[in-house]
Amino acid sequence: MNDYGIVLAIFGAIAAALFAGIGSARGVGMVGEAAAGVVTEDPSKFSKVLILQLLPGTQGLYGLLAAVLLLSQIGLLKGELIPLTMAQGFQYFIACLPIAVVGYFSAIAQARTAVAGVGIVAKRPDQSGKAISMAAMVETYAILALLISILAINGLK
Amino acid sequence: MKEADYAYAVARIRANESSLLTTADIEQLISADNYQSALRVLEEKGWINAENHDDINTALKTQMNDTWQLLREISPNISELDFLVVKNDFHNIKAALKEFVSVQTLRSEKNNTDNFVVPSSIDSEQIKNAIFNKKFNELPSFAEVAAEKTYNVLIRSADGQLADIMLDSMALNATIEKADNTKNQFIKETAELICVTANIKIAFRAARAGKDEQFLETALCQTKTLDKASLIDATIRGQEELINYILTTQYFEVADYMKASTTSLEKWCDDILMLHIKNAKYICLGIEPIIAFYIAKDAEIKNVRIILSCKHNNLPSEAIKERMRKLYV
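Output (structure tokens, whole complex):
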């Protein structure tokens, strides 16, 4: 039974890193394509569009952070696995869901906002600060999800 | 195509939109003292260079062709945009047929490229060779049928006007067909609007000229939002009846422009299309901004052509302003 608990907890860590990572990869790729379009026409706008491209990448880092925290808590990183019941493993799995799910969707949503921001940079480069602020607003919800996941993982000690 | 596939294309379009003429630029052109001053303004905007002053038509053609080349380069699927240029293919079939007839009857040279328009989805040389060698099957299917049908009409009846009308109507039908094939709602609506406005213009001119039902049956295309049979019925009963019929349709606002003049009707037809595409300014992913850019460039070139033509004929600024189409930016 203890093995199943560990398996569920590891699934949670994998979900956090996987879904948030996929969301970020898709998001950074999408903004990157748009950024390349602007740089093709005007290479001097590279630095402005690069900031926008980086923004959807943070969700992947948040997923990684939650995963590392969980793996460290169950002793996997030290090579000393703590025995977990099925219920405990399931609790760890559930604790990872906020950053896994919100991370994925917020990265895509942020990417779309950043692509719109790339359009602003293309036409009105002097307004790039506003484009970055608008895209950064989406980050709030990824941070909230990360916070809940971290509190839940830590609370399960 | 998923809308995210257009990220690169839309970004390049946004960057290019800043090169479109603004209202201030158009005002500057209108207020130019004369034709030569207007050309100098265009030169400042990078539209033409000093060598183009004598051949402004080629310069404007190049502008449109460059726009199409840009769209070809950036579009994930260029065939989705074919509905925008298919009318030029039919125009080129018309030009090739006329050249063929003049070569046959007047023994003139076979190298008159002035009548061919760009951009087009089929190379004009390919159309010319297919018609001169009667190898219509070398053309894409939509052009093959059109070329063969009108070729036969021209050879058997020598009725150039009928051939022209048939080709114009087939061009409109092909526009709708190509748009329907894309399954994209914005493209379908744009094509519908292009064809409805063309039908209204044809019906208006036909009502004035007292054309019969057979002419209208050939000249008008089938659209979803403006019933062809009712339009024909109203048109053969005269201009008043046509306007009364239009008032009962969703295009009722054009009635006032039809009452005013042909010029204002033409302007409304272009402006309604511009109003339709303006929403594309707020779409960041999708094909809409690409289509809108092409139509915007087309309207811009039309405006420049009108200004230059009016300046050439020394028309006052007020007369030019009346004719100006709405801009995208």
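Chain A has one domain: 2-155.
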